[in-house]
UniProtKB/TrEMBL annotation, chain A:
Superkingdom in the source lineage: Bacteria
Native organism: Pseudotamlana agarivorans
Record lineage: Bacteria, Pseudomonadati, Bacteroidota, Flavobacteriia, Flavobacteriales
Protein name listed in UniProt: (2Fe-2S)-binding protein
UniProtKB/TrEMBL annotation, chain B:
Protein name, entry field: Molybdopterin-dependent oxidoreductase
Source organism phylogeny: Bacteria, Pseudomonadati, Bacteroidota, Flavobacteriia, Flavobacteriales
Species of provenance: Pseudotamlana agarivorans
């Protein structure tokens, strides 16, 4: 059995230790907010927070995730919640499929860098693909979130 | 006006999933582009558009079209709510299952709002009139003393009653005739910037896309398909596969020879998607590659180029092109080459099918639930009534999810294992086994007189046609594939349009904007080339080419107005500061195109940094008639810029010996945030009926970019993608 700490709760799962975290989340535990997009760490749809940093869960075997603090799009952390609000306020999503991964990436950015420059945002978000092309709004939503936080 | 009926007490409503006890209005869809007198006189009433007002005040709209990011669920509900004076926040959407009762459910061709707008307004206005009537009966006051506002009917004395409380009276009323629609100046939601009704579910990860659907005892499947289109399995070895933990079974999938049939291959059934993927990798299959094993795109594009440089089949001719070319002071000819493309929606094709007791239930992201229903019924040999197709949210569609071959695959496997199974395509499957956007070679030739006016215009193209998917062997384009080139609205005395023969060796399908992509590219780039040959500014030259304000003759209901075409082009140029002095090394390229009955222009400002193009900004202008939801029109234009840039920079599906060479997002690349330019969108204010929005933005991007690069560098790129020229 493998124990995973996800969104503040421990889950004991019976999985092949080499199974990537993505599939344990989706097919065993039932957190389907984390998406499959490419399976090769190229698109960022599968991102989750591992100890506050964004990782591609399609590449990470569950065996390596024991003892880590994992947060998915269904989880609650300050920056994620603030970003979700900005995403809604600015109508960022089109189809919405990549947005959980985008939000996780943005959360990790603000965790590390509360006042990101435009270039910081570009570089941090370059790991995520949005086929609908919502980049302009994603950038604005991150900037808005950072500004609101600074004012508070 | 379309007939609207009060069907609150009809029994068949249970099948629609609507509750009893509410006020239910239905209409027979009068997609007004198809509405005829006969239609109106018809006595039979086949409702296909439904709204229900419940006693608790909730308003439910049955959405017959699929949501794939274009905002259709938001747009349709807002139109109803506006005319009905309902509180839009109390409108919920019930996604319709695939059923012929809804009329055309195909979500493609940028037509949902275009076709449903009028009917939705009439339904909303009718409901409002009935609620006012119900209130007047309840209060025993004249209707003229009652008005409707924000989910209430209000009497002149100030007393008010909620819509929900009027339901029991309203359901007993007849449908009023000649209901008046609101004046556009009174619109509360239509034409405004509305948030998406699904946004909170999306950002919290709660939204259920096809891949997220779960049913009890669900098994997962991955299928290995032949690397060459329409090849088949000779033999396979599953020994290693069955040793993988989680793998349950290995099953051969037959090819179903139909446009949307399964390609065939070998499936691995497992307890998790990952085990199925791993099993698929471990499969050893000996293939018969079949008839397409020699398809190599590099050779093929050369053949297509030779084809279009020789006379072809004349589809349209005006004046005398040969004479114009003989007399012309200057002759210019160029050939353009465009590659195959693939959709890559972020959500790969996937479907759950559950065959049991002579029925089948499907859950899948689908643009065409009715086609899926028919394919499933045909495969199982059962009546369509026994098949339920549930449409989930779509994680992008772009035309890929119009072709339900993946639903057929899931059904084959569910029948085999006698339980529910979810077929999941890997990204590699999606890139290597799709219905591809066609490749084409296009030859254009023009004559100029000594004042720089174009006197003759010849356009000849060859492309593997979409028709070949439906009629194997078809090798000349469909009318829809050449329309935008055939009807180029240029005021030139001698014009000719020809097509050449081209065989298909992949499944050819439609992708967002379809052949407007290559056609608009060639027309816009060639026009720009002519401007420089004539020594006239490209904007001025293009306006001259379009010529006088007039309505072009087409067979369509919507008028092709050259004044609108020129207007969007001039606006885009103006918004971009075209003609003003720009920073050193900067240049602006322009393109304009009419498709899906909308007019779109792009102005792209670039410079060259370290031999690579850098885009400083993109200005988009669209005239799509009434913009029902400005937020989603704006979003579609912003998205079209990225989609158009992805294909201009990187879009290329190539084959060697029939096998697609691209694998994943490493070699079929997408624009990422680092390359995404600032985009400004202007929506032309209009009172005309709404026209397409989802697709018409894409075709102008690549040509505007290529024209800008030429202006900045003097280098003309006549083939895509730009990555192969080293400029991106």
């Amino acid at each position: 059995m493998i124990t995973l700490n996800i969104n503040g709760k421990n889950h004991e799962i019976d999985a092949d230790p080499s199974m990537p975290l993505l599939w344990a989340l989706r097919d065993i535990i039932g957190y389907t907010g984390t998406k499959y997009g490419c399976g090769k760490g190229l698109c960022g749809s599968c991102m989750v927070l591992m100890d506050g940093t964004a990782i591609n869960s399609c590449l990470m075997p569950v065996s390596a995730m024991q003892g880590r603090t994992l947060i998915t799009i269904e989880g609650e952390t300050e920056n994620l919640q603030k970003l979700q609000q900005s995403w809604a306020d600015l109508n960022v999503p089109q189809c919405g499929f990549c947005q959980p991964g985008q939000l996780i990436s943005a959360t990790a950015l603000l965790n590390k860098n509360p006042k990101p420059s435009e270039e910081d945002i570009d570089n941090a978000m370059a790991r995520n693909i949005c086929r609908c092309g919502t980049y302009q709004r994603i950038k604005k939503a991150i900037q808005n979130t950072a500004e609101i936080k600074i004012k508070q | 006006m379309a007939p609207i009926k009060n069907i609150s007490r009809r029994h068949f409503l249970k099948n629609m999933g609507l509750a009893s006890g509410g006020l239910i209005l239905a209409t027979s869809l009068s997609s007004f582009s198809h509405l005829t007198e006969d239609h109106l006189k018809k006595e039979t009433f086949n409702p296909n558009l439904f709204i229900e007002l419940l006693p608790d005040g909730r308003l439910i709209l049955v959405a017959s079209r699929s949501e794939m990011g274009q905002g259709i669920r938001t747009s349709l509900t807002s139109v109803i709510a506006d005319e009905m004076e309902a509180d839009w926040s109390r409108v919920t959407v019930k996604q319709a299952t695939g059923n012929a009762i809804y009329g055309d459910q195909n979500t493609d061709g940028s037509k949902s709002v275009r076709n449903l707008y009028q009917s939705m307004r009439e339904m909303g206005a009718t409901a409002k009139a009935m609620l006012i009537s119900a209130a007047s009966k309840t209060w025993k006051v004249p209707e003229t003393e009652c008005t409707a506002e924000n989910h209430f009917v209000i009497h002149t004395t100030g007393k008010k009653i909620g819509y929900g409380d009027l339901v029991s009276t309203a359901i007993t009323l007849d449908i009023p005739e000649n209901v008046k629609l609101k004046s556009s100046k009174d619109f509360k939601y239509i034409g405004k910037e509305l948030p998406s009704i699904d946004v909170h579910d999306i950002v919290s990860g709660k939204a259920i896309f096809g891949l997220d659907k779960r049913v009890p005892n669900l098994k997962f499947a991955a299928i290995k398909r032949c690397p060459v289109t329409f090849g088949s399995v000779k033999s396979f070895d599953k020994t290693d596969v069955l040793k993988i933990p989680g793998v349950i079974d290995v099953i051969e999938v037959p090819r179903i020879i139909k446009p949307f049939g399964a390609l065939g291959g070998v499936a691995v059934i497992a307890t998790s998607t990952w085990a199925a993927f791993k099993g698929k990798e471990a499969l050893k299959i000996d293939w018969d590659y079949g008839a397409n094993a020699e398809y190599t795109t590099n050779t093929f594009i050369t053949e297509l180029t030779e084809t279009v440089q020789k006379p072809g089949k004349v589809n349209k001719s005006k004046g005398n092109i040969d004479q114009a070319f003989t007399k012309g002071d200057k002759l210019i000819e160029h050939t353009y080459q465009l590659p195959h493309l693939v959709h890559t929606p972020m959500e790969v094709p996937n479907a759950i099918s559950w065959v049991k007791d002579g029925t089948c239930e499907v859950w899948a992201p689908l643009q065409t639930p009715q086609a899926a229903r028919k394919e499933v019924a045909d495969y199982l040999g059962i009546n369509q009534e026994k098949v339920t197709v549930n449409v989930t949210l779509l994680g992008g569609g772009f035309g890929r999810k119009s072709k339900p071959d993946y639903v057929v695959e899931a059904t084959i496997l569910s029948k085999e294992i006698q339980g529910p199974v979810q077929v999941v395509w890997t990204r590699e499957d999606d890139i290597q086994h799709s219905y591809y956007h066609t490749t084409s070679a296009q030859y254009l030739k023009a004559s100029l007189d000594n004042s720089g006016r174009v006197t003759g215009w010849l356009h000849r193209l060859a492309l593997p046609t979409i028709k070949s998917t439906f009629q194997p062997g078809a090798n000349y384009p469909l009318g829809g594939e050449i329309g935008s080139a055939l009807n180029v609205p240029y005021d030139i005395p001698n014009m000719q349009f020809e097509t050449g023969k081209a065989d298909a060796h992949l499944r050819i399908g439609w992708l967002r904007s379809v052949v407007n992509i290559p056609n608009a590219f060639c027309i816009n780039v060639f026009s720009d080339e002519l401007a420089y040959e004539a020594g006239i500014d490209p904007l001025e030259f293009r306006l001259q080419l379009i010529g006088s304000d007039r309505i072009e003759k087409t067979k369509e209901k919507f008028k092709y107005d050259t004044a609108k075409l020129k207007h969007v082009l001039k606006k885009a140029a103006k918004n971009a500061g075209y003609g003003n002095s720009l920073p050193e090394g900067h240049a602006i390229g322009l393109a304009v195109h009419y498709s899906f009955f909308s007019y779109v222009a792009a102005a792209i400002e670039v410079s060259i940094v370290d031999n690579k193009v850098k885009i400083h900004n993109v200005n988009m202008v669209i005239d799509c008639g009434v913009a029902v939801n400005k937020n989603s029109v704006r979003a579609q234009m912003e998205g079209a810029v990225i989609f158009g840039l992805s294909l201009a920079y990187y879009g290329n599906i190539s084959t060697t010996n029939g096998q697609v060479e691209q694998n994943n997002f490493n070699d079929y690349k997408m624009i990422r945030m680092t390359e995404a330019p600032k985009t400004h969108v202007e929506i032309i204010e209009s009172k005309s009926a709404p026209t397409g929005v989802g697709e018409p933005g894409v075709p102008v991007i690549a040509p505007a970019l290529v024209n800008a690069i030429f202006k900045a560098t003097g280098q003309r790129y006549r083939s895509l993608p730009l990555s192969k020229h080293g400029i991106v």
